[in-house]
């Protein structure tokens, strides 16, 4: 195996191979973006970015070049725009483990206060795709719990959880919307989670989802689909979680 390039690095913070394409020509906006990363590091979280005019003079480039560099950093979650105020250095991204833990547990592990706002808790027919995942008939009823996910009162995602009504007929009576659903299932309903399968992809939010999460529909989102089962191998829940790509990343540990 060839030795790694002295310029390469595995990092969530900086460019790989310094962003140099094979032909060796670096786009001007990208060079400005790399310089801005150093500026962001110096300023620190919450600091205001210099104005466009100041950045144009500092890097001797056009406003269009600065806007493209800043726009990419906003999409990546390194900067945040506040309407009528300016552009600021964003807080570090939250990290959600890809493991058998809920979003609530993942946030608490980072010293962040989790929260949730219930949008709906309803009974509905499973339909073909959901029935296949939960191993119920397509006309069987399932609970649909939809919640906006919060981190220190900041909206970071939207979660839809589906559970068979036949298995949890009393869910509405025992579940407190202010608490973790997983805590309710394990502590009050005796559920033991033994395993899960999860798929992650990038999407754009629908207009409704963007409104509920309070994000720009053009910003990339991280979408996860999870089916979890108990020791008997029978599915317990299916969860669809949509997270802001500028505020959250995923972490998993691999091994043989």
TrEMBL record:
Cross-referenced SMART domains: HTH_GNTR, UTRA
Domain called HTH gntR-type: residue spans: 24-92
InterPro entries, A to Z: Bact_HTH_transcr_reg, Chorismate_lyase_/UTRA_dom_sf, Tscrpt_reg_HTH_GntR, UTRA, WH-like_DNA-bd_sf, WH_DNA-bd_sf
Keyword Oxidoreductase: no
Top-level taxon: Bacteria
Keywords attached to this entry: DNA-binding, Transcription, Transcription regulation
Protein name: GntR family transcriptional regulator
Organism: Amycolatopsis melonis
